[in-house]
Design goal:
The complex is a heterodimer of chains A (about 400) and B (about 475). Chain A is built from 16 helices and 4 strands. Chain A is mainly alpha-helical. In chain A, strands 1-2 form a two-stranded antiparallel ribbon. In chain A, strands 3-4 form a two-stranded antiparallel ribbon. In chain B, the strands form 2 sheets. In chain B, strands 1, 3, 4, 5 and 7 form a 5-stranded antiparallel sheet that branches. In chain B, strands 2-6-9-8 form a 4-stranded antiparallel sheet, with no helix packed on it. The chains are: A mainly alpha (about 400), B alpha+beta (about 475).
């Protein structure tokens, strides 16, 4: 900046003779020169490649011979391949279930955290931590936790061993809270069912009570063998109570849990930014009218963050539709058809190891993926448009 | 709820009870609410950071799959650090690195419990010839400590009677302590580790030893020690030392993890430069210029963000394979596959690329906030278009350039799909995420998770440090994602 020499008089406000907006040929050329690296990049690696993939999807091509035009045959053939159908099913189930759960949980967490207190920034940063590491790092850590003698089965074991103690504690907590609120109301104080001060007392007393019952042997830890649930190397589908077409392969559920875990913080931060723009007077007005926490959440929170919800849902849909990394990293340790997604199907047809690549088939499957992605984006635009009208 | 009457400040009206203690009643609730809120936040924090933290701690274990999982590790006990340092000094004179050098003499003690009515028999001690690790380390030539070390027979040094409890069973018997002397006979190379196996008679139970056993088998009859001359660093960070020591390239013998780290830094560095330069140029044009086809450029920009990587990678892969219109021959190569430049130049997906559409957006958004007056002043001074951009506007865009730098670095560092396509062989051409997958394939099957976890944690450290230092840029990035519409 200081390299620009300022002649005398330039400081005085004076209407410039030449205006920057003047779109002379020179300016047009300048704009395109500035844009040229980006446009060349887009042309080669996006436009050309998309067009080429579309072309390949109508051909029979194995990377070595010349492509042969086959019309819609690849698209028809896809539906006779059980692996593709499985990939389609897995992708759609994964996408819909994960999007629903993580959007909902992110909104609830953001609502809980939407308070004006000190140190929120620190906690927000802590929650964001798992989202900054690469999918490979997180997936490897989760794979390790999903081992048969891993952390997740261990925690599961410990929780079921201590189930009597946990149940006693929860029952005591509910009971004590109920009694206290009742007494407090009789005394004329406007105590709510989740009154924080009484809750702290209930918490303290029920911990004492549970410990007392535990030490006197009234309740005790159950003696059960360690949980040996197989998360990865299994063809089992859960939940068993559902009809078979709605059951999910266990390894896919494992990826779902991991995906929800790593995506929630990002979505939560988006929601938090939106919630901080919602006026508190709305909530206060509703409170005066006697609306409870849940009604305030349904009638104020959800409508006021609707635009962000559309965005969050779209981003989640796109992200989950294109699920690839986790499947590739799980790789041979899980049965392929349990976790295969459209993305991985494309990759697998492109690089099938010992066989010849089926580029046409891969491209056709990729078009499905592009179609779903586009549909998700268009749906969002449409919803926002109807919202505005 | 029925009792709740509120004044205009949203607080319960004080008229509910005539007593003067209503204010303190409310104050108690405020304090309690804050307490509960902080507790909830701490629980969330444990939930989200927990897995990373726990993996970090467990990566110090000899076997991170040892059951039950625990955070109270032998490796984190300062008493063992001192012992490890002492043994390291006895082995090679080096407290920190340890090792086994000519002239070394050290003693190692093991204590067993022998129940009553059982004959006390000294354990059999040997230095096993175990190759370090499976998979990627298997091709490496190793020197075995067994060829240079001489062991004395275990010498009983102490015998105390007492009771021993395992689980809910208690025995009466003897605690017997043995001493083993290990000596480096003659001259030879420095050996980095001396493993030790102690096999006791049946019914003898391992109790303790100079350094705790790394592995116990057959209810404590076999106690294995991965290294009895560790030094402090190899003792605590065993898997991290293995990371740089064990998995080596079969052709060059250099540590793979170092090569991958270097590759990742190189790709990220170049991508940061290209994004800072080209994305800011494009953003500048979009923010400041009026030109024919601007709308079309916008459409292309949006479209490029929507096309899945699985669509574009097919053609981009072929382009690289065929040398990218002869560009490869300029670099003296036939193909750009298995080349870092191939990863950098081409790309698939909008998450990370040489010129990222999202970064163009960030720059455009920022340039629109800079008042035009500055440029108009420069225009009067006769600055041309390039000078107006490079000397006037760009220096003002430092915050946005910071965000582009950080986000590009993170995106590139973590990128997996595209490098996986381009970089397949040899091993040392890979970037960290692809390399870690190779670790998973080589070591995961053998159940050797120590090295995999150590690699994962190590590879995450640069972005974690970046995140801690430049947190606000990351948060801006997310918030920006939320405000794109």
């Amino acid at each position: 900046m200081d390299s620009i020499k300022t002649p005398a008089g330039a400081g005085t406000p004076k209407k410039p003779q030449i205006r920057i907006r003047n779109s002379s040929l020179r300016e047009q050329l300048g704009a395109y020169l500035f844009l040229s690296p980006f446009l060349i990049f887009l042309a080669i690696f996006f436009a050309y490649s998309t067009g080429r993939a579309l072309y390949f999807s109508f051909t029979d091509y194995n990377l070595f011979s010349d492509p042969q035009w086959v019309g819609f045959q690849n698209y028809l053939r896809l539906f006779s391949q059980s692996l593709f159908l499985r990939a389609l099913q897995n992708t759609l189930l994964f996408s819909i279930i994960v999007t629903t759960i993580q959007t909902f949980l992110a909104l609830i967490m953001a609502t809980v955290l939407n308070q004006k207190i000190r140190g929120l920034g620190f906690f927000r940063a802590a929650y964001y931590m798992p989202s900054i590491a690469s999918s490979v790092v997180i997936t490897l850590i989760f794979m390790w936790m999903y081992q048969r003698r891993g952390l997740i089965n261990y925690l599961w074991t410990e929780v079921s061993r201590h189930a009597p103690i946990i149940m006693t504690f929860l029952l005591l907590l509910g009971l004590l809270q109920f009694i206290q609120v009742y007494v407090e109301r009789r005394r004329g104080f406007p105590a709510q069912w989740l009154d924080p001060a009484l809750f702290v007392t209930s918490l303290f007393l029920s911990v004492l009570g549970t410990l007392g019952a535990w030490s006197t042997g009234l309740i005790s830890v159950r003696q059960i063998p360690p949980v040996d649930f197989i998360w990865l190397q299994t063809r089992e589908r859960i939940p068993a109570v559902m009809p078979s077409f709605l059951r999910l392969p266990v390894p896919l559920v494992a990826i779902m849990i991991q995906n929800i875990f790593t995506t929630i913080p990002t979505l939560m931060i988006m929601y938090l930014a939106a919630l901080q723009g919602v006026s508190t007077s709305l909530y206060e007005a509703a409170q005066i009218d006697g609306a409870g926490k849940i009604r305030r959440f349904v009638n104020i929170t959800i409508p006021s963050v609707r635009p962000v919800t559309f965005l969050v849902v779209t981003l989640s849909l796109i992200g989950t539709l294109q699920l690839f990394d986790q499947v590739a990293i799980f790789g041979g340790t899980v049965p392929l058809e349990s976790v295969i997604t459209l993305s991985y199907f494309v990759y697998e047809r492109m690089f099938p190891g010992a066989q010849l690549p089926q580029v046409g088939l891969a491209s056709a499957a990729a078009m499905f993926l592009a179609f779903f992605t586009l549909a998700a984006v268009l749906l969002q635009r449409l919803l926002i448009k109807t919202e505005v009208d | 709820m029925r009792f709740l009457k509120l004044n205009e400040n949203g607080e319960p009206a004080a008229a509910v009870r005539a007593d003067g203690d209503f204010d303190s009643w409310l104050a108690r609730r405020r304090w309690a609410r804050a307490g509960i809120l902080y507790s909830v936040m701490v629980v969330f924090a444990i939930l989200f950071v927990g897995p990373l933290l726990f993996a970090g701690i467990s990566s110090l274990r000899v076997n991170p799959l040892e059951y039950p999982p625990s955070i109270f590790l032998d490796e984190l006990n300062p008493r063992n650090w001192v012992t490890a340092g002492r043994l390291g000094r006895a082995g090679s004179g080096d407290v920190i690195q340890g090792g086994f050098a000519p002239g070394a003499e050290l003693s190692f003690e093991i204590e067993y419990f022998v129940p009553e009515d059982t004959e006390v028999v000294p354990p059999e001690i040997e230095i096993p010839r175990r190759r370090p690790g499976a998979g990627l380390g298997a091709t490496r030539e190793v020197r075995f400590a067994a060829d240079y070390a001489e062991l004395t027979d275990p010498r009983e040094i102490e015998r105390v009677s007492g009771t021993h409890t395992v689980g809910d069973r208690t025995w009466d018997g003897m605690f017997v302590r043995y001493e083993i002397e290990i000596e480096y006979v003659g001259g030879g190379p420095l050996i980095d580790r001396v493993p030790l196996d102690a096999l006791a008679e049946s019914d003898h139970i391992y109790v303790e030893s100079t350094l705790p056993a790394s592995r116990l088998e057959r209810r404590g009859r076999v106690a294995s020690f991965t290294n009895v001359v560790p030094g402090v660093v190899p003792y605590i960070f065993r898997n991290y030392v293995r990371l740089f020591d064990e998995a080596r390239s079969p052709s060059t013998g250099k540590p793979l993890f170092l090569a991958w780290t270097r590759n990742s830094f190189f790709v990220a560095f170049i991508r940061v430069i290209t994004n800072v330069l080209f994305a800011s140029m494009a953003g500048y044009a979009l923010a400041r210029y009026r030109f024919r086809g601007k709308y079309l450029v916008f459409i292309a920009l949006l479209f490029s963000q929507m096309v899945p990587a699985q669509v574009t990678f097919i053609s981009n892969y072929l382009l690289l394979r065929d040398g990218l219109f002869g560009l490869a021959s300029l670099m003296g190569r036939e193909t750009l596959l298995n080349s870092l430049w191939g990863v950098i130049i081409a790309g698939a997906g909008s998450g990370a690329a040489m010129i990222q559409a999202a970064m163009v957006f960030v720059m455009k958004q920022f340039f629109e906030t800079i008042p035009r007056d500055v440029e108009e002043a420069a225009l009067i001074d006769g600055a041309n278009q390039w000078q107006r951009y490079s000397r006037v506007v760009l220096p003002m865009a430092r915050p946005a350039l910071g965000a582009v730098t950080i986000l590009t670095f993170q995106g590139t560092w973590n990128e997996f799909f595209w490098p996986l396509i381009v970089l397949t062989s040899p091993q040392e051409v890979k970037t960290l995420p692809v390399g870690l997958l190779a670790f998973r394939q080589a070591y995961g099957a053998a159940g050797d998770w120590g090295l995999i976890l150590a690699g994962a944690i190590m590879s995450a450290i640069p972005v974690i440090v970046l995140f801690i230092v430049f947190q606000k840029y990351f948060m801006q990035g997310v918030a920006f994602g939320g405000s794109k519409e």
